[in-house]
Amino acid sequence: MGSSKRGLSRMRSTALFSKAADSPRPSSRPSAEVEKLARFSRTASPANSRTPTVRRIPPVILALLLSLLAACTKQPSDPQSPRLVILYAPCTVSKAFLAPYGAEEWLTPNLARFAESAVIFGNHRTEAGSSGIAYAALFSGGHADRHGVFQHPAAVGDAVDLIAEAYAERGYETYFWNGHGMTSNRLNYDQGVPPHRSFKRGLVAQDIQFQKLLEGLRSDPERRAFVTTTFTVTHGPYSQDYLAPYLALHPEERPESTADELARWIRVYRDDHIAFAYNFEETLKRRGIPPSATPGFIETVELLYKTNIAHLDQMFGELLKTLDNHGIRDESLIAFTADHGEIMFRDNALFKWTHSSSLAPEVLEVPLLISAPGAGVAPGPYAAVTRSIDVFPTLLGLSGLPVPESDSVEGLDLTPVLTGQQPPPDLLAYSHLAAIPRVVHRRMRAEGQALWGQRKVFFPTPDIGLIWASVKRGQRVFKYRDLGGHWGFQAYDLEADPGETTDLFDPNDPSHQLMAENLLRYKSRLVERARAQRRPRGVGPAAHTESKDEAALKSLGYIR
Q: Which helix (H) or strand (E) holds 68?
């Protein structure tokens, strides 16, 4: 897929390109020869009867062509060719708060109902706890050594093939509701989407452009569309905007703290959320919070996050209701996922209420629910390991479309597994930390360890060689990281020890040795690619400036 785009400017139309002629993987789509016959037969319709060629086609041959077209061209009702594909990918979603993953159903009732008709991937893992890297992996189907994003904000290169391009080249109108600063147009994440269909906001059900799209799909059964949305309502510092309506609806959730105490805890958290994330104990002391009051403070912060999750569920539910109202839901392929999760308070967690610079399972284990009505996919749990890089090829496969042969795509199309044709594969899910941007490093040096805590100790420079890496197989996760003065390996059994309290790594165990070698090779790949593509400071796209980076990072609360 990628060869025809090398050296070209960004693709911003839905036209078919020469890449469509690449040899596709096996699929149920019509062959190239049948597609040519279909196009020819359309030109031979009565509406074009003035064309001399039509009058020379014998009736028997014309009838044969039309029968081939009817037999091979996908109809709107064909379950393998959804009219609408939605990749709904909000930021910072902890799956522990979602009903499909064991949380109380009343907190996310819309996701609970959606899960009844969806595959619930219970062992799904993202590439990184940093949005730019995680979204690049999700959209490209490859790891950082392929998509080239090692920190955020960072631009995706033109040569990287993204999922919207794949759908555009296969006849889908493409749309992008981009409400996230790390996936902005200036960073090239909207490849494959024409400018008039790329909106600088997250998708909500009432969006006028979305309503127009649904009306168009309802009025024209031949139209097909691919929609992506990125946004966040759950990113720290957690918003207090949804607290009052949440408590009005769920008064039993009101904490024991008085109204004044609740307001005070919210102010304390939001004023100093970076320090609480990276230097929790010292910040408690600095803010004068005694041990007796700490549980109330923790409860308040996590209540805020819970209200944000409830609001996200409401947004998603409204979107589903709109699809029902327009009669398009049964012809839609919908994937709900996230770039990364979020760690809450855990005593032994290196950092709290954040995701950056963390290989915590709460950060890397993310939700993935896919609803594909009538596609031969049985709803229910899927327990085997899957990865964010598998979403791109799997959505194409469930759409009955060939997965592009591309240097960018290394994920696996899980369609044969989901349709019962193959057993679940034994996949290794690799993840890693981001390189910390220079903008953030300058802040860390200026503001000191009181604010940045252990993050400043572990990552004293922006060197890509300081990143940590992990790999998951089944329920075992292995890590290669700085252990405090020396580098080493760790191993945890997440089924028996979800809080990672007991390190099981045994250097004499051959299976552990193998995973350690895999991790070293993985990290080496990343570091080698990152250093090879590194540009001198001040060199690069004019739109990608440190001042804009700083503004984007500040808008999401990464820096003050």
A: helix 59-72
Give CA 4 to chain center in angstroms: 26
Amino acid 551: pLDDT: 84
Q: How far apart are alpha carbons 538 and 304 in whole angstroms?
A: 40
Rounded to the nearest integer, the mean pLDDT of the chain is 86
Residue listed under structure tokens 């720290």? 236
Q: What is the pLDDT of residue 547?
A: 78
The region, left, alpha or beta by phi > 0 then psi within -120 to 50, assigned to residue 492 is beta
| Separation between Cα atoms, residue 440 and residue 559, nearest integer Å | 7
The C-alpha atoms of residue 54 and residue 73 are separated, in whole angstroms, by 21
Element containing residue 489 per DSSP (H, E): strand 487-493
- Per DSSP, 224 falls in state -
Q: Using CA atoms, how far apart are residues 212 and 521, in angstroms rounded to an integer? A: 49
What per-residue string of b and e applies to 143-155 under the rule 16 or more CB within 10 Å gives b? bbbbbbbbbbbbb
Q: Class assignment of domain 84-236+332-426?
A: alpha beta
Virtual torsion, Cα 43, 48, 53, 55, nearest 10 deg: 130
User: How many angstroms separate the CA atoms of 400 and 97, rounded?
Assistant: 33
Alpha-carbon gap, residue 389 to 127, rounded angstroms: 8
As a whole number of angstroms, the distance between CA 550 and CA 560 comes to: 10
What is the residue whose two structure tokens read 């405090």? 484
User: Domain segments of the chain: what residues?
Assistant: 31-73, 84-236+332-426, 432-555
Which amino acid is present at 165? Answer: E
Structure tokens at 403: 């997965």
> For residue 40, with 0-12 CB atoms within 10 Å meaning exposed, 13-18 middle and 19 or more buried, which class applies?
middle
Overall residue count recorded for the chain in this entry: 560
Q: 285-320: buried (b, 16+ CB within 10 Å) or exposed (e) per residue? A: eeeebeeeeeebbbebbbbbbbbbbbbbbbbbbebb
Report, as ranges of residue numbers, the positions in the chain whose pLDDT lies below 70.
1-80, 535-545
**How far, in Å, CA of 246 to CA of 311, rounded?**
9
Cα–Cα distance for residue pair 112/20, rounded to 1 Å? 38
Q: Residue with structure tokens 């292995």?
A: 478
DSSP 298-363: HHHHHHHHHHHHHHHHHHHHHHHHHHHHTT-GGGEEEEEE-S---B---TT-SSSSB-TT---HHH
CA distance 308 to 312: 6
Give the 3-state secondary structure of residue 30: coil
Please give the pLDDT value at position 444: 86
Rg (CA), the chain: 25
**Is residue 164 within a helix (H) or strand (E), and if so which, with residue range?**
helix 163-169
pLDDT of 535: 57
- As given in the structure block, the two tokens for residue 420 are 């019962």
DSSP element (H, E) containing 88: strand 84-88
Strand runs (DSSP E) across 149-244, as ranges? 173-178, 198-199, 225-230
* Bond preceding residue 237 cis, omega within 30 of 0: yes
Query: What is the crossing angle of helices 32-43 and 59-72, to 10°?
Result: 120
Helix (H, G, I), strand (E, B) or coil at 123: coil
Characterise 448 by phi-psi region: left (phi > 0), alpha (psi -120 to 50), beta (else). left
Place of tokens 């070209």: 8
